């Protein structure tokens, strides 16, 4: 059977067709009729069905009576009644401001709407914020200041109409892959289409660009000011547009007077010629589409960076036409939906502003309550700060993982420990935040839920269930509604609670949300679930049943400020909040991997998705490595002013010397001590309150950890990983990851969990013995049912322990403690599927050198067809064209996520060829 739905990951919002048998999801493919992807999916979307296997799912509410006590299963009535009583007590004792809700851009719009209404009407506070604060809030505040409303003026079709794509602080080749396929197609169809990429890193998107402006971290405003200087002084501005449709140009003109190309380029670390080239390309283009994401947003001056880019569009009249306009990219699948329902500390439903009394009154009238609270709630970082200070006593966290994703992790963890009552509404049991929950509520997830999401181009799509949720898991809107009713009763509000929360289905919630937007800029009063089911996805506004949606905003050049005119915003150049200095000389940047999503609760359960980037590592420029006598694979200590992280280094010239890069996905489930967010500060933009994830001052020091351990255990890796996770903290450095033995199209995927550790000294033998037991390699149980006897080698003098178990010649469990050189060749050999049985002797030999015939280790570039980097490099010599490479190896012929890398590998081989 097949069910149409929407991908659970990024803001591109691709349509998917879920294949299932009513009880199990068996496959997924792109929906050819969906306007966002026209049948395409990336590596993440095309493996969604593999994440629905359920071994890490929460299936029953679980409650612990005491902080140190064990959790026990409870039924929903008990769970909701305990939650309602605890929160009601805290509200009565400490006031409504002492209770907070922290929700997510991965919730559906219906879920979001219910939470928003619950917090404002039942709890009586605005203490609700969302992880979209970490993602899009600078874009929201930038749009509101410049254009007058929270909007995204452009649409994906603009890519086909533009003759310049200006991509700033975004790597869509990895983070929005299907949209990047569209950019590739537009470039192929239109040789006149130029792309300029602004990014401190030479990403795959940057490598593909006609011009890459590799600016210093946080200097984007200086770049945009310098470009505006050139646009003005070389006569590229659109005076008629400026005079007819904007305010504030003259002030900005004064600001940019001093930002000559030499001055601005000097601040940015690029050449004046590069800056002038970019400005002239912007000025000469017939139609410019700008795309940006976290590089601009996750900054202590993110709002100004957004406004500075919007200033360029306003100065040149590049808005409101096909191909001309700003098109910010949302990170999450429904960041836009959260903005629509106002599930943020300073917003109200229907893009209303909490600070405006007429907006508060309109919402109160619509909901039929006396008033909505006027005191703004706390944005994400400040919310957890308040919890740390004891001002917030209870927190309800839904569909997000702040113990992995917020900055200054040690402080966040301390805050969660300090809270009197923590509710975590979550689908996955191993989300880092779940460990802090007093009450864990099992939520339904992708493939099991019904509702809507809004993607980066304002396109609203249906999300539909294919199978029922496991066990007692429930839809998020149902949990929020049931809790609202329970809390209403606990607070003595029986009279109006049923009237406020009357819904029997998510379609009824959506109908109320749609009605609440009537007359607003995002008016979707003409939409319903039924209409979306009949007509497919539509872009807001859709004000009446005849409207077919709106591709572009501001086509009449009337902007959303009261006078209809857009605003030039005076944006001073500012550097990142935290300075590098002699003690912390490196700038650490964080970002995304091609095949992983957020905290990896979902993608991190699929072994094949680790093939492109197998292990947590910090990327260091080769010159910085050489200066410190380091090599890829060495373990270093990274220290910021907040804490220390121990991590492997990998050589990469994508970032300039003096800069480091670490993907944000890795957390405590993979790496002892957690991930990069342990180091990141809670510095926020003064307007959007979005934290600065893109720059942290750190120092890097070599660690001498000569003792090493390697373990591999074959099986359902996501299920096996929790057996090894408890050992992460027992060594000076340790990581645990999944590995896969087959391509995505393999008939019988094999997975394993791999544990690596390093230490300054050999650890206690008892620790090694207990790790061996977790691997099924216990000294006391050398025989195992149906498997060959365990093989052993021990050199007590040197502290070396080696054990392995084979099954029909296949290696299924391995422990190499004290001497693990063989790991370098065993793992690729295991992954290749070849039998390791004949190599037993060599496995345990003291030197453990790789046999010459064995498969060399090489990372997988094309997951769909299982093509590794070494295979591609070998083939590049013979096939000098991309088409030839594709013909020979089939790489890049399915999802296309590897295409930028294929082009790069081909280009790198060109001189030799
Ligand atoms: Fe999902 Fe990939 Fe499409 Fe994003 S680009 S919505 S992750 S399939």
Task: Report on this structure.
The radius of gyration is 27 Å and the shape is globular. Helix 3 crosses helix 14, helix 8 packs antiparallel against helix 11 and helix 20 packs antiparallel against helix 21. It has 913 residues and is of the alpha/beta class. The chain contains 31 helices and 36 strands. A hairpin with an 8-residue loop joins strand 1 and strand 2. About 1% of the residues have low confidence. The structure holds iron/sulfur cluster. Iron/sulfur cluster binds next to helix 6. The site of iron/sulfur cluster has 14 residues, from helix 6.
Quick overview of this protein structure:
The protein starts with a strand and ends with a helix. The protein is an alpha/beta fold and 913 residues long. Iron/sulfur cluster (SF4) binds next to helix 6.
Topology, please?
Layout: E1 2-6, E2 15-20, E3 25-30, E4 62-63, E5 72-73, H1 76-94, E6 99-103, H2 109-123, E7 128-130, H3 137-147, H4 158-161, E8 164-168, H5 172-175, H6 177-189, E9 194-198, H7 204-208, E10 211-213, H8 220-233, H9 239-245, E11 246-247, H10 249-257, H11 261-268, H12 272-284, E12 288-292, H13 294-297, H14 302-316, E13 325-328, H15 335-341, E14 347-348, E15 352-353, H16 357-367, H17 380-388, E16 394-398, H18 402-405, H19 409-418, E17 421-426, E18 439-442, E19 451-454, E20 459-463, H20 476-490, H21 494-500, H22 506-516, H23 529-535, E21 538-539, E22 566-567, E23 586-591, E24 617-620, H24 622-627, E25 635-639, E26 644-651, E27 659-663, E28 696-702, E29 707-714, H25 717-724, E30 733-740, E31 751-759, H26 765-774, E32 791-795, E33 800-807, E34 810-817, H27 823-832, H28 840-844, E35 860-862, E36 867-868, H29 869-876, H30 882-889, H31 899-909
Parallel strand pairs: 6-7, 6-16, 8-9, 8-12, 9-10, 11-22, 12-13, 16-17, 17-18, 23-27, 24-26
Antiparallel strand pairs: 1-2, 2-3, 4-5, 4-18, 14-15, 19-20, 20-21, 23-28, 24-27, 25-26, 25-28, 29-31, 29-34, 30-31, 32-33, 33-34, 35-36
Helix pairs in contact: 1-20, 2-15, 2-20, 2-22, 3-14, 8-10, 8-11, 8-12, 8-14, 11-12, 17-19, 20-21, 29-31
This protein binds iron/sulfur cluster.
């Amino acid at each position: 059977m097949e069910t149409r739905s929407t991908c659970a990951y990024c803001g591109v919002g691709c349509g998917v067709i879920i294949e299932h048998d009513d009880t199990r999801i068996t496959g997924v493919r792109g929906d050819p009729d969906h306007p966002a992807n026209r049948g395409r999916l990336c590596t993440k979307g095309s493996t969604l069905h593999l994440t629905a296997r359920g071994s890490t799912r929460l299936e029953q509410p679980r409650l612990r009576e005491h902080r140190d006590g064990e959790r026990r299963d409870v039924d929903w009535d008990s769970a909701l009644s305990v939650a309602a009583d605890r929160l009601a007590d805290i509200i009565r004792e400490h006031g409504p401001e002492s209770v907070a809700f922290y929700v997510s851009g991965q919730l559906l719009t219906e879920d979001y709407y219910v939470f928003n209404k619950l917090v404002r009407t039942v709890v009586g506070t605005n203490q609700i914020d969302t992880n979209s604060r970490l993602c899009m809030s600078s874009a929201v505040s930038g749009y509101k200041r410049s254009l007058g409303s929270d909007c995204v003026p452009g649409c994906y079709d603009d890519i086909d109409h533009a003759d310049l794509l200006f991509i700033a602080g975004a790597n869509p080749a990895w983070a929005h892959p299907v949209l990047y396929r569209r950019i590739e197609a537009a470039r192929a169809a239109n040789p006149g289409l130029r792309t300029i990429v602004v990014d401190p890193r030479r990403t795959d998107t940057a490598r593909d660009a006609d011009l890459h402006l590799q600016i210093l971290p946080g200097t984007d405003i200086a770049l945009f000011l310098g470009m505006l200087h050139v646009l003005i002084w070389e006569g590229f501005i659109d005076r008629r547009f400026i005079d007819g449709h904007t305010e504030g140009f003259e002030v900005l003109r004064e600001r940019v007077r001093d930002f000559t190309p030499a001055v601005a380029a000097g601040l940015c670390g690029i050449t004046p010629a590069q800056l002038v080239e970019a400005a002239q390309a912007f000025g000469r283009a017939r139609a410019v589409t700008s795309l940006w994401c976290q590089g601009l947003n996750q900054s202590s001056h993110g709002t100004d960076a957004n406004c500075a880019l919007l200033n360029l569009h306003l100065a040149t009249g590049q808005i409101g036409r096909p191909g001309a306009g700003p098109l910010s990219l949302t990170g999450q699948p429904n960041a836009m939906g959260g903005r629509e329902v106002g599930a943020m500390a300073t917003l109200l439903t229907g893009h209303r502003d909490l600070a405006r009394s007429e907006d508060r009154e309109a919402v109160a009238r619509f909901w039929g309550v006396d008033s909505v609270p006027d005191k703004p709630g706390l944005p994400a970082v400040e919310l957890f700060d308040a919890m740390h200070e004891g001002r917030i006593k209870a927190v309800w966290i839904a569909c997000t993982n702040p113990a992995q994703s917020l900055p200054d992790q040690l402080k966040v963890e301390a805050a969660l420990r300090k809270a009197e009552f923590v509710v975590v509404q979550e689908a996955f049991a191993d989300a880092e935040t779940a460990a802090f929950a007093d009450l864990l509520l099992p939520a339904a997830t992708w493939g099991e839920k019904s509702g809507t999401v809004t993607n980066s181009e304002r396109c609203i799509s249906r999300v539909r269930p294919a199978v029922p949720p496991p066990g007692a898991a429930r839809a998020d809107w149902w949990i929020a509604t049931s809790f609202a009713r329970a809390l209403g009763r606990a607070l003595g509000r029986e009279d109006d609670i049923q009237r406020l929360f009357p819904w029997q289905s998510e379609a009824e919630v959506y109908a109320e949300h749609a009605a609440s937007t009537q007359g607003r800029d995002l008016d979707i009063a003409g939409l319903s679930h039924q209409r979306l089911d009949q007509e497919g996805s539509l872009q807001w506004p859709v004000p009446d049943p005849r409207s077919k949606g709106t591709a572009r905003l501001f086509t009449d050049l009337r902007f959303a400020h009261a006078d209809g005119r857009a605003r030039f915003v005076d944006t001073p150049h500012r550097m990142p909040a935290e300075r590098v200095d002699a003690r912390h000389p490196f700038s650490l940047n964080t970002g995304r991997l091609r095949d992983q999503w957020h905290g990896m609760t979902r993608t991190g359960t699929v072994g094949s998705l680790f093939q492109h980037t197998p292990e947590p590592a910090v990327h260091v420029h080769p010159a910085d490595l050489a200066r410190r006598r380091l090599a890829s694979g060495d373990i270093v200590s990274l220290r910021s002013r907040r804490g220390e992280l121990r991590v492997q280094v990998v050589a990469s010239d994508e970032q300039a010397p003096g800069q480091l890069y670490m993907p944000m996905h890795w957390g405590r489930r993979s790496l002892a001590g957690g991930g990069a967010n342990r180091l990141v500060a809670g510095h926020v933009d003064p307007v959007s309150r979005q934290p600065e994830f893109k720059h942290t001052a750190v120092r890097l020091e070599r660690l001498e950890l000569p003792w090493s351990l390697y373990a591999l255990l074959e099986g359902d890796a996501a299920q096996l990983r929790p057996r090894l996770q408890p050992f992460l903290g027992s060594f000076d450095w340790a990581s645990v990851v999944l590995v896969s033995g087959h391509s995505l199209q393999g008939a019988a995927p094999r997975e394993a969990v791999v544990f690596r550790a390093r230490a300054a000294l050999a650890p206690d033998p008892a620790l090694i013995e207990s790790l061996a037991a977790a691997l099924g390699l216990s000294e006391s149980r050398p025989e195992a049912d149906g498997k060959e006897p365990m093989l052993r080698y021990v050199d007590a003098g040197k502290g070396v322990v080696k054990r392995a178990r084979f099954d029909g010649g296949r290696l299924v469990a391995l422990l190499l403690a004290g001497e693990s050189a063989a790991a370098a060749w065993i793992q690729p050999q295991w992954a290749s599927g070849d039998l390791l049985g004949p190599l037993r002797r060599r496995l345990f030999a003291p030197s453990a050198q790789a046999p010459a015939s064995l498969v060399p280790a090489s990372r997988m570039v094309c997951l769909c067809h299982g093509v590794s980097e070494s295979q591609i490099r070998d083939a590049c010599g013979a096939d000098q064209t991309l088409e030839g490479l594709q013909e020979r190896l089939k790489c890049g012929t399915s999802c296309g996520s590897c295409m930028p890398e294929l082009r790069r590998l081909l280009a790198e081989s060109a001189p030799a060829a």
